[in-house]
Amino acid sequence: MAVAIVDYGMGNLHSVSKAVERLGYTSLVTADAAAILAADSVILPGVGAFGDAMEHLRESGMDVVVRAAAEAGQPVLGICLGMQLLFSSSEEHGEHKGLELLPGSVVRFAPRDGYKVPHMGWNKLSFLQPESPLLKGLTEGHVYFVHSYHALAAADSDLLAVTDYGHPVTAVVGRGNVYGMQFHPEKSGELGIQLLGNFLQLQAQQA
Amino acid sequence: MLAKRIIPCLDVKDGRVVKGVNFVNLRDAGDPVELAALYDREGADELVFLDISASVEGRATMIEVVRQTAGEIAIPFTVGGGISTPEDMKRILRAGADKIGINTAAVNNPQLILEGARHFGSQCIVLAMDAKYNEAWGEWEVYTHGGRKPTGIRALTWAKEAERLGAGEILLTSMDADGTKDGFDLKLTAAVCDLLSIPVIASGGAGRIEHFYDVFTEGKADAGLAATIFHYKEIAIHDLKADLKQRGVEIR
């Protein structure tokens, strides 16, 4: 069972890769199209700015590869910025097109009293669709967020879990075989590892 | 609503934990990686490593500790000590740390905060500050070089400046409270928290569970950091969090 972690020069992939290995899977940090398309599942990580990330994805051809993996039915998981990239567009430093696997846009947190930006730290998940394969069997708890922009899913049916930061914030999304987590599951203690474990199990169910 | 964070701090020299570690259930109590993994299991929300190595070899060893720790734990961690250039920051972050702590180097060269934030994002840059009450001023003064050198800089002024330059967080150590176990410096902590809109980690003086409750309420801190009381198991993190939760503090 090999898990491809897409390496497109954005962020540190070591922690994600190790978390995957601790769960008993083989992880492959790669920018090789054939390896990604042959993997049992695909993780799109990401830290940094949306526009830079999309540019890196396009330059490396990884945008086409990730879309192809999603269309071929491989389980795909975007983490943090990687989740935001799954959406149609972002307004981070100008208007940018995303991978368009999920309808919706990414916007900056509006300033509010008592809510600092970035939204950084441990916040509690509320499961909207507890029967989703990603959330099944798990108990709502805290996970670790670091972000200044958040995704507005156009379809309520894509929203699996939210967290409260003055208003409901998109935390877990899913449509078919495409999933996303705004927080860092690899930095979110036991619950984070369980969430990652549920995602990695999808491949077994589909195989 | 963000949870208040409990953060153990590990002093590491030449790849070994040096200060007050007294664990019976570890194979090697001096191994920072093993200790970090234990704290993760016990419910710590984050960790801070302070590298007090003086040699180039010691610093190189720290990179390896960071790399191994990143592979072992599932909570964020900050690395501080001897970081004075964006290249230093890059090495530590590349090895898998989530945040960088800077102290003396930032006082000497405040642009380091700006550069770090620009390259890696504000969320990566933790300004560590050692402050001591100055009677003549009637407010707190910043000390550098591990608390040995007074700077003539007012702590509140420096905190505000660090935030303006792009620091994502302040790790605030009260030199007056540090080591006393009489509780965090609530006045200093609240003064800094009132002034800033970035999170503040309070450090120095924790001796009992109530001290954390006080610093999260009266002190308005976002996180509480301690070393010896956790290392010596005077307070078990699990008990501390259960107690705080019972008192209505938002805790993971």
TrEMBL record, chain A:
It comes from Paenibacillus tritici. The lineage of its organism: Bacteria, Bacillati, Bacillota, Bacilli, Bacillales. The active site is at C80, H184, E186. Pfam families: GATase. Residues 5-199 form the Glutamine amidotransferase domain. PANTHER family: IMIDAZOLE GLYCEROL PHOSPHATE SYNTHASE SUBUNIT HISH. CDD domains: GATase1_IGP_Synthase (cd01748). Pathway: Amino-acid biosynthesis; L-histidine biosynthesis; L-histidine from 5-phospho-alpha-D-ribose 1-diphosphate: step 5/9. It is found in: Cytoplasm. This is Imidazole glycerol phosphate synthase subunit HisH. Heterodimer of HisH and HisF.
UniProtKB/TrEMBL annotation, chain B:
The active site is at D11, D130. It is an enzyme of class 4 (lyase). It is found in: Cytoplasm. It comes from the Bacteria. Heterodimer of HisH and HisF. IGPS catalyzes the conversion of PRFAR and glutamine to IGP, AICAR and glutamate. The HisF subunit catalyzes the cyclization activity that produces IGP and AICAR from PRFAR using the ammonia provided by the HisH subunit. Its EC number is 4.3.2.10. Its main location: cytoplasm. InterPro entries: Aldolase_TIM (IPR013785), His_biosynth (IPR006062), HisF (IPR004651), IGPS_HisA/HisF (IPR050064), RibuloseP-bd_barrel (IPR011060). GO terms for molecular function: lyase activity. Pathway: Amino-acid biosynthesis; L-histidine biosynthesis; L-histidine from 5-phospho-alpha-D-ribose 1-diphosphate: step 5/9. Belongs to the HisA/HisF family. This is Imidazole glycerol phosphate synthase subunit HisF. The keyword Amino-acid biosynthesis applies. It comes from Paenibacillus tritici. Coiled coil: none annotated. Keywords: Amino-acid biosynthesis, Cytoplasm, Histidine biosynthesis, Lyase. It holds the Pfam family His_biosynth. It catalyses: 5-[(5-phospho-1-deoxy-D-ribulos-1-ylimino)methylamino]-1-(5-phospho-beta-D-ribosyl)imidazole-4-carboxamide + L-glutamine = D-erythro-1-(imidazol-4-yl)glycerol 3-phosphate + 5-amino-1-(5-phospho-beta-D-ribosyl)imidazole-4-carboxamide + L-glutamate + H(+).
